[in-house]
Amino acid sequence: MEPLKLPGPKARALIKRDSAVISPSYPRGLPFVMDHGKGTEVWDVDGNRFLDFAAGIAVTSTGHSHPKVVKAIQDQAEQFIHISSDFYHEKWIGLGEKLNEIAPFEEAATSFMTNSGTESVETAIKLARHHSGRMNFIGFTGAFHGRTMGAVTFTASKPGYHRGFYPLMNGVVHAPFPNPYRPILDRLPGEDYGETVVRYIEDEILAHIVPADEVAGILVETIQGEGGYIVPPPGFFPALRELCDKYGILMITDEVQSGMGRTGKWWAIEHFGVEPDIVTAAKGIASGMPIGACIARSSVMTWPRGAHGNTFGGNPICCAAALATIDLIETEYLENAATVGQYALDALSEIMTRHSHIGDVRGIGMMIGVEFVKDRKSKVPDDELCNKVADLAFERGLILLSCGKSVMRFAPPLCTTKAEIDEGLTIFEEAVTLAEK
Ligand SMILES: Cc1ncc(COP(=O)(O)O)c(C=O)c1O
């Protein structure tokens, strides 16, 4: 395939204007300047077409500008745009009811609506402290929970997220995330590696660092996102649930990236057979409108009037988009994410057999990671190759984002078809072949 010449002239001019006025802190990678999008396809300002397998970092769950989501936004904008969280409106209540229906626990759910993933996490941290009366937390290395002061303290995927920002929040201790491809702890005979990590938390962290009865919560991504699309071993969450129950610790699963149907179930935690106490959501919840939620068991969200709030929470346009999105996921895309996701996982596993620099392919539904290594024996991460693949794929019309040290993430919209997966993976394999040369 002939590579596109990127960025084109219009894109180049806009990137120049951007660099003069927009914060340089944004981690821009590919020079893609969007003009419009439809489903899994996007076009840049120079008229180039791309398949979007990044979906705005796993956000555009129903694809770009799904007509039903657009209509819901337009209708609501005509009715009213804002009223503030001091008052009530039906779509906000309706969204709370819907989240109660799909929450990953039997008990009734109460939700606090936020404006982003990091605010959902921040809310969960405050709620856990308020409800338990305890101060401390356990998080995981490799985690990404956002960039506000509380959430960023738990974030531990790159030191750059902390550099220049100390002191961070008090009371957070990190344990190693159970990465089956790169285990760092010694497993006992017959032990699942997830159980090993939970044993480490009990025998090392709780026994030597923080008293268990002063730990408010354990905050964990069900599938690590930014850290490298890492699926923990099956024994991890059951053992973690048991530990939390033993010491009265709240289990908080961050599903900002893995939730809202991305794995073929509403929540990734449903694949592991346990129920958390608090779950955070954002990203895919409203197809790109900025809304998130901290969803808790009603017996946990017990704080009184005034303890926590925000101005934009439950914004009517965002709630309308969320309700339309949830309806589409429920009726069509949950099933599609499971079947087309498995199809993509199988195809990528087959591609792996032809490329020795691919060390691992893993994932559930439409949350798939492909890890590049110098060679399969040493498993040394090959970040240079990974970046090269992203650039070469982009020049051939495929948008991919990397994560971890050298992992390519595949997080297309949940409406992506098998034909689009075939088209995208043909480009991906061509890019891998060229990069390996
Ligand atoms: C698991 C997880 N939690 C929290 C966040 C933060 O979300 P936001 O960027 O909307 O603040 C992210 C964003 O990538 C995420 O992946």
Overview of this structure, please?
- It is a single chain.
- This protein has 437 residues and is α/β, with parallel strands linked by helices.
- The protein has two domains: 9-65 and 333-436, Aspartate Aminotransferase, domain 1 (Alpha-Beta Complex), CATH 3.90.1150.10; 67-328, Aspartate Aminotransferase, domain 2 (3-Layer(aba) Sandwich).
- Helix content is 37%, strand content 16%.
- The protein contains eleven helices and 15 strands.
- It has helices spanning 9-21, 55-58, 67-79, 90-102, 117-132, 149-154, 193-208, 236-247, 316-353, 383-395, 418-436; strands at residues 34-38, 41-44, 49-52, 109-114, 136-140, 172-175, 215-221, 250-254, 278-281, 292-297, 358-364, 367-372, 398-399, 401-403, 407-410.
- A seven-stranded mixed β-sheet has the order 4-10-9-8-7-5-6, with helices on both faces. The chain has a four-stranded mixed β-sheet with strand order 1-2-3-13.
- Helix 9 crosses helix 11 (418-436).
- It is globular.
- 51% of the residues are buried.
- The mean pLDDT is 97.
- Pyridoxal-5'-phosphate (PLP) is lined by residues 57, 116-118, 121, 144-146, 221, 225-226, 254, 256-257, 282.
Bound molecules: pyridoxal-5'-phosphate
Question: Low-confidence parts lasting 5 or more residues at pLDDT below 50?
Answer: none
Distance between the termini: 16 Å
Shape: globular
State the share of residues found in helices, binned by percent.
Answer: 25-40%
Overall mean pLDDT stands at: 97
Strand proportion = 15-25%
- Tell me the major beta sheet: 7 strands, mixed
Supply the CATH class of the largest domain. Answer: Alpha Beta
Using only C-alpha atoms, the radius of gyration works out to 21 Å
CATH superfamily of the largest domain: Type I PLP-dependent aspartate aminotransferase-like (Major domain)
